[in-house]
Design goal:
It is a single chain. By secondary structure, the chain is an alpha/beta fold. The chain contains 13 helices and eight strands. α2 runs parallel beside α3, α9 packs parallel to α10 and α10 runs antiparallel to α11. The longest helix is centred in the middle third of the chain and has 15 residues. The C terminus is likely disordered. The structure holds iron/sulfur cluster.
Length: 353
């Protein structure tokens, strides 16, 4: 595996040194949303556990990841037990649960094995489907074999981000590779688990056109390894490398038109590609030159239903000329300068951050 040491160390220097957040007995957040994990739109509970965070933070962080803002290095097993109890009481009969941890649920340092067992004993009987996230190094047979014995169908979400190892190393600083992802996905599926793959749309140092091409290629490359694919357009988080570039107007998050284009171009029978953008229509998230609520709703609606007809007719009936000119111009610049913000500022208006 190749890492770009200078890049990794620059990112590390941007991370705050005091990594401590709120009440250690409470998850960072618990909420209800819709998702499509078992082939249909369903109510889902999402919980973010407050943990000591991703093992990768010991060395650096991914260039877009600001989850370290929610971690606490002093978290104990007792704290985690109480958080689990809180989540168990928050299900209200909902049978699908997604657990995020600002790292990897399957990392035994972040979630010790006895805590994981307590979680599965306490929550397993209450749900039908559990989605957990993990870096590739923890998706080993010896570490995950037992997960399946508690009842719920397990989906493991892996942040591959791109199938291009150069982008993984030099734009994202992921500390993993496409081949590691493939081995992990095959291992998990052999044990009867399903896979969700996260792709990152428009990491730094890429023009929007190149980023669209990368998503389309990555989606084709991972077809045989995943049960669904979540295209995550960049959302700029605090204290990250991407925020550092963005504040200097050297980075612009992708446009909603581009996201719609990726979904429309990659739809195919038997393939599930979804996108639930965080921060959509905001300056820190995916947005067009002007906010477009209808387009964002159509993207989420098509992701949940996998019926892209309304999104397609909206896309085809819209005037995309200025969008196309913008991404064409950006493709010819030496850097990924945020020409959209610069031109909006010269015209004297902005959208909400
Ligand atoms: S692997 Fe995940 S949690 Fe860890 S730094 Fe990267 S994006 Fe953040």
């Amino acid at each position: 595996m190749r890492t770009n040491r200078a890049f990794a160390s620059f990112i590390k220097d941007l991370m705050p040194s005091d990594l401590r957040s709120g009440n250690p007995d409470m998850p960072v957040s618990v909420w209800k949303e819709l998702d499509r994990i078992e082939g249909k739109k369903e109510d889902t509970v999402v919980a973010i556990f407050r943990t000591r965070g991703c093992s990768w933070y010991n060395y650096s962080s991914c260039s877009m990841c600001g989850y370290f803002n929610d971690i606490d290095l002093s978290i104990t097993k007792e704290n985690l037990y109480r958080q689990i109890d809180h989540v168990a009481q928050s299900l209200n009969g909902i049978k699908v649960l997604k657990i995020f941890t600002s790292g990897s649920f399957l990392d035994p340092v972040e979630i010790p094995i006895d805590v994981r067992e307590y979680f599965m004993h306490t929550i397993g009987p209450k749900i039908n489907t559990l989605l957990v996230e993990s870096r590739t190094e923890y998706i080993r047979e010896d570490n995950i074999r037992d997960l399946g014995k508690y009842g719920p169908q397990i989906r493991i979400a892996i942040g591959l981000e791109s199938s291009n190892d150069r982008i993984i190393a030099d734009s994202i600083n992921k500390g993993s590779t496409f081949s590691k992802y493939k081995v992990s996905a095959v291992t998990a599926r052999k044990l009867g688990y399903t896979i969700r793959t996260y792709l990152l749309f428009k990491p730094p140092f890429m023009t929007e056109k190149a980023a669209i091409d990368d998503m389309i290629k990555s989606i084709a490359d991972i077809d045989d390894f995943t049960d669904d694919i979540s295209v995550n357009p960049m959302n700029i988080q605090r204290n990250t490398f991407v925020e550092y570039l963005w504040k200097k107007h050297l980075y612009r998050p992708p446009r909603l038109w581009s996201l719609a284009r990726i979904l429309l171009e990659t739809r195919k029978p038997g393939r599930t590609v979804i996108s639930y953008p965080t921060g959509g229509n905001k300056e820190r998230g995916v947005h067009n030159a002007k906010p477009d609520r209808e387009l964002l709703d159509l993207i989420v609606g098509a992701s949940l239903s996998q019926d892209f007809s309304q999104l397609e007719s909206y896309y085809k009936s819209s005037d995309l000329r200025s969008y196309e000119q913008e991404i064409e111009l950006e493709a010819h610049l030496v850097s990924d300068m945020d020409i959209d913000t610069l031109s909006r500022r010269s015209l004297g208006y902005s959208i909400k951050i």
